[in-house]
C-alpha cells in the first residue's frame, strides 16, 4: 500500500519546465491544467465523505458466514476531496463539447440540447420496463412514432425496436434471415462479407452460427460484383454489405448485388452504421435490402462514445418482418400501440424468432432520436446528410496533396475521408499522426481501420463543424503530415503536452493492470 499522500502532490509527468524555469511547479499542477493521482494514492485511512455512527448492535449474520471481519480497504477522502478528485479527472478527458471528434465510422453526431431536455421529461425518463402496458401508452406511442419515421426514411416494411446497438442489430437481422431460411426448409450456412467490413459483421455471422466467406474489393474500394456473384449458390444464406462502405464510398452496384443475391435465394443484410450520409437521399428499401440496423447513436444524434448507451433498431423487408423479435411494437386497429409479447405470439406473430433482449429498447435514446428527427423534419435530415458529405469532401480535398488518399482519384467521398500512411518518412506511422493530433488539442481520427488500407486514417467531420473549425483541424493535420514526411523525430514521441506521454499500448492491451496494486 502506498504511503498516505495528503497533499496530493505529484510531479507533472513528461512536461518539461517552461523556458526560464528550473523545475515544474511544486504542486504538479500547471495553472488550470490540474494533475491528479489515483484515488488510492490519495488514501487517508479513517477518513470518509459521510459521518456514520458506529454500529452498536451485533450485525445479524444472514450471509452464511461471509460477513466481513474487517472493514474494506477503501480510500479515505472527505466529501470535497472526493468531488475534486473526480472533477479533476473529468477535466483530463476529451468531449464532443470541447472540440471536434473526427472518428471515422463512429459518427460522433452533434447532440442538440433539446434532445436532452425532452429525454428528461418524467414521462419518458421514469418509465419502468415492467410497468403494465396501459400505464405507459404515451411512451409506446412515442416509440411507434419513431418506428414510423424509421420505416418511412428507409422505405422498409417493419422495424424491430429492441436491439441495443449496431452489433446487436446485426444479430437480430441475421436471426431473422436464419428463421426465414428454416421456414423454407432450406439449409444455407454461408454469409458473404466484404473484406472492408467492420469487425462486428463477420463476428455476428459466426455468432449466429453461419460460416463467413469474404468478398474481395475492386481497385476503387467497392464490392467486386463479379466476384460476389461467382460465390452465390444454394449454400449462401445472404450477404452483409455496408453502404456507404467503410472506405467512405457509396456502393453503386447495390441494387445489382441485391438482385443477384435474391435470384440465388439469399437475403441482403445492410450494415446501416453510415446511414447519416444518405438519410433523406436514398431509401435502402429501394436498393433491395432485407434488413438493416440503424445506429440511432450515430445517425440520429444521441450521445455515445463516452460509455453512453447505444440503440440499434433493425428495419426489415416484407420477406423478413414476420420473423422479427419479440417484443414487437404494433399499432392496433383502435389506434393504440401495443407490444406483442410471448403470450400473444402464437396468434399474432407465430413466425417470430423469439426474444433476444430482456426489455423493449432504450427509452432515452428513442426520445432523443425522435426529438432530433422531429426538430429537423424531412428537409433538415436531408441537409444533415448533405452537410456531412460536404464537410468530408472539404477535408479530403484540403489534405490530399499532403497525404495519400487511396481512393481520392475515384471521385468524391461520402461522409468520411480516407487517407493512408503511404508517403510518410521511413519509420513514421499513422500512430505518430494520431498522437500529434492530441498535442494539437484534437481527438485523434480512427486509425488502422478499414483493414484493406495500409496505415488507414479515417476522418469523419461532424456535419455541424463550421468551415472555420474545419480549417483549424486541417491546418493541424497539414502541419503533422509535413513533419511526418520531413522525418521530424519529435513527432515520434508525441504527445508532449498531454497529462501522460505515449504509452506502450500493446503492453496495456495484452497485460492490463485492472486492480490497484499498492
Ligand atoms: C459502429 C459500427 C458498427 C457497430 O455498431 P455498435 O453500435 O457500436 O454496436 C457496425 N458497423 C459499422 C460500419 C460501424 O461503424
**Total helical elements:** 14
Give the CATH superfamily of the largest domain.
Type I PLP-dependent aspartate aminotransferase-like (Major domain)
CATH topology of the largest domain: Aspartate Aminotransferase, domain 2
Largest sheet: 7 strands, mixed
* CATH architecture title of the largest domain: 3-Layer(aba) Sandwich
Oligomer: single chain
Percent helix among the residues? 25-40%
Low-confidence stretches: 1-14
CATH class of the largest domain: Alpha Beta
Shape: globular
- Spell out the helices and strands N to C: HHHHEHEHEHEHEEHEEEEHEHEHEEHH
User: What small ligands are held by the chains?
Assistant: pyridoxal-5'-phosphate
- Spatially, the strands of the biggest sheet line up as 1-7-6-5-4-2-3
- By secondary-structure content and strand pairing, the structural class works out as alpha/beta
| First-residue to last-residue Cα separation | 4 Å
Give the amount of beta strand, in percent: 5-15%
The figure for the number of domains is 2
What is the count of β-strands?
14
**Average pLDDT:** 91
